[in-house]
Amino acid sequence: MDYGTLRGFFALLILALFIIIVVWSFSKKRKSSFDDIANSILEDEQEQNNKSHLETDSKQETNNNV
After folding, report:
1. How far apart are CA 36 and CA 34, in angstroms?
2. Please, are residues 58 and 64 in contact by the beta-carbon 8 Å criterion?
3. If you write DSSP's letter for every residue of 7-61 in order, what string do you get?
4. What span, in angstroms and rounded, lies between the C-alpha atoms of 17 and 6?
5. pLDDT, mean of residues 35-50
6. How far apart are CA 51 and CA 57, in angstroms?
């Protein structure tokens, strides 16, 4: 087996892996988990905003009592 044949097999392997990854990423079974992951960033941000609002409200209440 010469170098050209080895490069051809390697190219076919890389092409097959690419096709497998594309099919896996666009499969309907994975859509819900990808959507959950994508929305988790927004949920974390909303939770942080809610916590910061609660903290500022509690700080304002304690400052008003002084």
Report:
1. 5
2. no
3. HHHHHHHHHHHHHHHHHHHT-HHHHHHHHHHHHHHHHHHHHHHHHHHHHHHHHHH
4. 17
5. 76
6. 10
